[in-house]
Amino acid sequence: MLGGLSLPQVLAAEETAATRPGKAKSVIMLYLLGGAAHQDMYDLKPLAPAEIRGEFQPIDTNVPGIQVCEHLPQHARWMHKAALVRTVNHQAGCHNTLPSYTGYEQPLDNIVSTKDSYPPSMGSVCEYLSTRQGVLPDYVYLPCYLGWGQSIVRPGPYGGFLGKRYDPLFSECAPYTDKDKPACAIQHPQILRGVPRLPHSELPEGLTVDRLAGRRSLLAHVGGQGAESDPPPTLASFSRHRERAFDLLTSTAARSAFDVTREDPTLVENYGNTLFGNSTLIARRLVEAGVRFVNVTWDCYWERLKLQFDCWDTHGRNFGILKEYNLPCLDQTYGALLTDLESRGLLDETLVVVMTDFGRTPRINANAGRDHWPFCYSLLLAGAGIKGGTVYGASDAQAAYPKDRPVSTADICCTIYECLGIDPATTVPDPQGRPVGISHGGTPLWDMLESRL
Fold first, then answer.
1. If DSSP codes are grouped into helix, strand and coil, which group holds residue 365?
2. How many whole angstroms separate alpha carbon 452 and alpha carbon 444?
3. CA 358, CA 132: separation in Å to the nearest integer?
4. Do 449 and 420 form a contact (C-beta atoms < 8 A)?
5. 127, 108, 120, 126: which is closest to 156 by C-alpha?
6. Per residue in 377-402, pLDDT tens?
7. Pick the CATH number of 13-197+258-448 from 2.20.130, 3.40.720, 3.10.10, 3.40.1000
8. Alpha helices per DSSP H over 97-228
9. CA distances for 212 relative to 51, 133, 239, 242, 250, angstroms
10. Predicted confidence (pLDDT) at residue 29 exceeds the cutoff of 80
11. N or C terminus of the chain with fewer C-beta within 10 Å?
């Protein structure tokens, strides 16, 4: 059960972790897959030439001197609780999702599969360091694994070399669109509906909770006969997944966290009653239940279901996609989440992150779209640990490159760790037991944090 490590190794690794309390008890990460157009959201350039600035106008936020896109009014209303980072960049390749989740900025030979040798994600590190006892794990990923809708497995949100036992609990989903709307087409997305569900959370017909408990007891007895030696990593991972499956089948608390019918229907509508909105509402319910790290991905669902081809990868009709669908849906859900967290007294202990894997080109292409651009892009952090109403870094006149204070994905990961009270200097053991740092050379962005934790 120790993932291939001896008990002394585990204890030694845990001693390297910070013990100080963090401002944030939990993180909700809203991940916009495909490369969100920063210059049409958080870093508009109204004085640039038309082929650069695009169609949208900036609006003032409730913090003097900070502006966002006109289609993000809820973002503008909550700017006093948020910080914009406008100079994130990496050279690890486009559609490489590993840097976002880990801070590890290396090009990959394959961006549509993952490897056990990759570094662990932030959520997996939280799971590894966790001492909390409970049915739900410390890392949950909604509404499905990254790449499910494209029938691929994107790298990033996994336990990596720590082992599969530190992978997140992935929910499942069955997205659909409104029947009275036209069929989804490339560059003309329709609103995706649906609610994530726990996998394998229903007992098979004829199997009672008492019978299941008997099976669990028997398996524990059989497994305990070899407890004098450490099990191999594959067996440890299997045991962890087996125990999780038992817990989910027998726990009403776990199932209730995914049950949005327990919420006021008005609140569900406030979130948008979309797949993304319902996933975010469940994320709030999960952090309320004590889950440490929850990821909600705005994914693509084309190869598998012929739904929503583009997500945030807007090579064509960029402004139509953003104006008609992406920005209003994101803005509504983001505003509902912050309002909901604050009304429950959770915003000051929950860090909300709006992140994407890279940015988009300064110049608009012949298809009214923007192409791949990892050399400068933006993201947003709000809530616990964040000095609200701040902007970190500035891009050049075309939002093409950092003008000052460039930020790596490792810096972002270290900032999130710092908010959680996890020392970025923490190390975790690789399969040979050697300590590997989780910072990947990054440092926290101290100027946008409330205080040096």
1. coil
2. 10
3. 34
4. no
5. 120
6. 999 999 999 999 999 999 999 999 99
7. 3.40.720
8. 98-102, 122-129, 209-224
9. 63, 21, 16, 12, 8
10. yes
11. N
